[in-house]
Amino acid sequence: MALKYHVIPVTPFAQNCSVLWCDASRKAAIVDAGGDIDRIQAWVDGQGLAVEKLLLTHGHIDHAGGAAKLAEKLGVEIEGPQRAESFWLDQLPTQGQMFGFPRSEPLTPQRWLEEGDAVTVGEETLNVIHCPGHTPGHVVFHSPAAKVLVAGDVLFQGSIGRTDFPMGNHQQLIDAIQQKLFILPDDTVVIPGHGPFTTIGAEKRGNPYVADPRYR
After folding, report:
1. How far apart are alpha carbons 26 and 142 in whole angstroms?
2. Smallest Cα–Cα separation from 84: which of 113, 110, 64?
3. Cα-Cα-Cα-Cα dihedral sign, residues 39, 113, 135, 150
4. Domain Metallo-beta-lactamase: where (predicted)?
């Protein structure tokens, strides 16, 4: 029994939509279905997976824009982000207009998530960590058993999330990464919202925005 994962880049922003599934039950969760929902569903169907929920890290259009339509097609509910993210989820129509995305209606998930909550994927459990800074209600999903972190736009290979959007806070983001994520095991695989995978250890040692000389 193990948690498996696969990334499908979606939207013109090449956002890493993650499909997580429990190998034992073949039940799955889709994280950040920002768009291209037919392609996401086709991949899931091709693997014989049963999607039981959608998860959101935050409310930017490339992460959340396709979630409501996909959830409706699949007959499942949406969990996450943290409640402060209503600021961005309410503005999905405006975001779509700004960036030329298909229209998305304002979205309210069936379950808001808080620090310390857990979400299940089949027989597997993910821990919820609230990491504000890129956006106010941003959450990430950590599987201790699989040693994987779905990080959204908090932490990237050699970089961190932007904080120049409304409600962004640079110091909050730095604190979240250093105090909440860098305490995870070094061999934790980080699936960022964009770009290649990395590990917690690699970012602790070499990320120019948040690395600490103690770890080099």
Report:
1. 19
2. 113
3. negative
4. 14-194
